[in-house]
TrEMBL record, chain A:
SUPFAM superfamilies: Cyclophilin-like
Keyword tags: ATP-binding, Hydrolase, Nucleotide-binding
Organism (species): Tranquillimonas rosea
InterPro entries, alphabetized: CT_A_B, Cyclophilin-like_dom_sf, PxpC
Pfam families: CT_A_B
Domain Carboxyltransferase: 24-297
Record GO terms (molecular function): ATP binding; hydrolase activity
Protein name, entry field: Allophanate hydrolase
Automatic annotation (TrEMBL), chain B:
Keyword ATP-binding: yes
Keyword Cell cycle in record: no
Protein name (Swiss-Prot/TrEMBL): Sensor histidine kinase inhibitor, KipI family
Ranges where the Carboxyltransferase domain occurs: 4-204
Recorded superkingdom: Bacteria
Length: 334, 236
């Protein structure tokens, strides 16, 4: 039972929920950039939500399953083909032994997930399968890699969403602090009034924001302290940097605010060049938002239902606008 | 005992600030609070990260809300016993100079002392692990003699070996993984402070004491070949 990597996109990694409890040893959890999408992919194929799946940035690639299993693509809108048949995202599909899975370029979103029933069962390293590139725990996948898969139940149904995914929009919500007192009232107001742009300087570690600077009147250097995913640190350049799944665990730059957990995946999924605003919540409001988001996600996962036809019919395909999502062809994925 | 300041770090973490400066007493309070929470867990506290003068506390607001957690932590800080848990002492063998210690002669010249004197100063000092951060298992070591304080390079070097013994500003360090660094390097230890494949991947923890012991280059090679890993001693 295994998955063979035929032609991976430029950044395909194995990610489980993350490697927790090691921040005091300098290792952030890593895990998925969009954790709810990763959990959904697993749930669709009947895995525990923390099972290891593939994460890819922008472009998936070609893979072959050596045994029959169910697969699901989430996180991005991207063309998915199983043995040449177009398949919808956010639903599970059967792939027979030897089937080739092709995932093209994402037309919406940045971080995509491919879960396979049984889960990827690479050897855990320090208690987890999450790839942490900066810590040297695992690496980006290469052509020819073979990943073991767990046992799959051939009778289990292919699941699909019970309703559409919520249309998340609006500002990215933050809680001020821990070092917002380093910034003047004017600059704190700028945080919620100005329009920021997602720059091309971004990876699993951090995202640099363009177009707005946040100078700290009381200095940008602090006595180094702990960071979390979502910390918005501001170095002397004034250019904000949002820390992500694979960030450093401590830092010496002032952090004006923290993106709340429920909104960090949405920020991570914004295309380079996207403009957005921040909105400031109190900590209490942010805690309520997290609890509400968890409950909505639990309801969504509980409402997954078996689907009869797992592959798209030509009638359905003709009814969709596929111009932005057709397979890009051999020029992009040879 | 200090009154803690609580700084929110989003809705799932807060920073407990226990002082303003980098000093052993403040850091001992931070580590004592971290140990207190490990020994008598507060339901909903997920993880703590000690740093120089503050403790990052990650929590699950589904179990305990930030406001309630601050009250519990205030009580814990007021009743802290800073003596609890003896710090460990690590003796780290170092071959000074050599390829990894390429800055040794340069630094000695810069300080207008001879190389032997620099090695003596570095290896006679007692260092405190203030915190682990920046990279897996990377220890920030305080206690470097003032004459050895050296600014970082404006242009970091691209590939410094794991085990390289460094000086950056007022700190000493043991490189835990290979990688770029703007610190200055004076030697190499055969000890790997981080090895993900080892049963104990990380050797050092905040609050530990470190002492460097000079060894010859061939001794370092031998220890490296056999994968020498020191055992901690009880600190005095």
């Amino acid at each position: 039972m295994s998955l063979t990597v035929l032609q991976p996109g430029p950044m395909v990694t194995v990610q489980d929920a993350g490697r927790f409890g090691l921040r005091d040893s300098g290792v952030s959890a890593a895990g998925p950039m969009d954790a709810p999408a990763h959990r959904l992919a697993n749930a669709l194929v009947g895995n525990p939500t923390g099972a290891a799946a593939l994460e890819f940035a922008g472009m998936g690639g070609r893979f072959r399953v050596e045994t029959g299993c169910r697969v699901a693509l989430t996180g991005v809108t991207a063309p998915l083909e199983i043995d040449g048949q177009a398949c919808a995202a956010n639903a599970a599909h059967r792939a027979d032994a030897g089937a080739e899975i092709r995932i093209g370029a994402a037309s919406d979103g940045v971080w995509g997930y491919l879960a396979l029933s049984g889960g990827i069962e690479t050897a855990p390293l320090m208690g987890a399968r999450a790839t942490h590139l900066r810590a040297g725990l695992g690496r980006a996948l290469e052509a020819g890699d073979s990943l073991p898969l767990g046992a799959t139940d051939p009778q289990a149904p292919c699941l699909a969403l019970g309703g559409p995914l919520p249309d998340e929009s609006g500002p990215i919500r933050v809680v001020l602090g821990p070092q917002d007192d380093r910034f003047s009232d004017e600059i704190r107001a700028r945080l919620s009034d100005a329009e920021f742009t997602v720059s091309s300087k971004r990876d699993r570690m951090a995202m640099v924001l363009d177009d707005v600077t946040l100078p700290a009147e009381h200095g940008h250097d602090i006595v180094s302290d702990g960071t979390v995913p979502g910390s918005i640190q501001v170095p002397a350049s004034g250019q904000p940097i949002v820390l992500m799944a694979e960030s450093q665990t401590t830092g010496g730059y002032a952090k004006i605010a923290t993106v709340i957990g429920p909104d960090l995946p949405r920020l991570a999924q914004m295309a380079t060049g996207t403009q957005f605003r921040f909105a400031v919540l109190t900590r209490d409001e942010a805690e309520e938002a997290l609890i509400a988001a968890r409950s909505a996600e639990a309801e969504r996962l509980a409402a997954l239902r078996p689907q009869a036809a797992t592959r798209l019919t030509s009638e359905f395909l003709l009814s969709c606008d596929l111009v932005g999502g057709v397979w890009p062809g051999d020029e992009v994925v040879p | 005992m200090t009154t803690p300041a609580f700084l929110p770090c989003g809705e799932q973490a807060l920073s407990v600030e226990l002082g303003d400066s980098i000093d052993p007493e403040t850091n001992a309070t931070v580590i004592a609070l971290s140990r207190n929470l490990a020994d008598a867990p507060v339901e909903g506290v997920v993880e703590t990260v000690p740093t120089y003068r503050s403790l990052l506390v990650r929590y699950d607001p589904g179990t305990i809300r930030g406001d309630a957690l601050e009250k519990v932590l205030t009580e814990r800080v007021s009743s802290l016993n800073r003596q609890q848990g003896a710090a460990r002492l690590w003796r780290i063998p170092v071959a000074y100079g050599g390829e990894a210690g390429c800055d040794l002669d340069d630094l000695a010249a810069q300080k207008e002392i001879d190389t032997e004197e620099l090695i003596r100063l570095h290896s006679e000092a007692a260092y405190r692990v203030y915190m682990i951060g920046f990279a897996p298992g990377f220890a920030y070591l305080g206690g470097l003699p003032e004459i050895l304080h050296t600014p970082r390079l404006a242009q970091p070097r691209q590939n410094i070996a794991a085990g390289a013994i460094g000086i950056g500003g007022q700190q000493a360090s043991i490189n835990s993984v290979a990688g770029p660094s703007g610190w200055r390097f004076i030697g190499q230890t055969p000890v790997r402070t981080f090895d993900p494949a080892r049963e104990v991947p990380f050797l050092l923890a905040a609050g530990d004491e470190v002492r460097f012991e000079r060894i010859a280059a061939d001794e370092a090679e031998r220890m490296s070949a056999e994968g020498y890993t020191p055992e901690p001693e009880a600190a005095t």
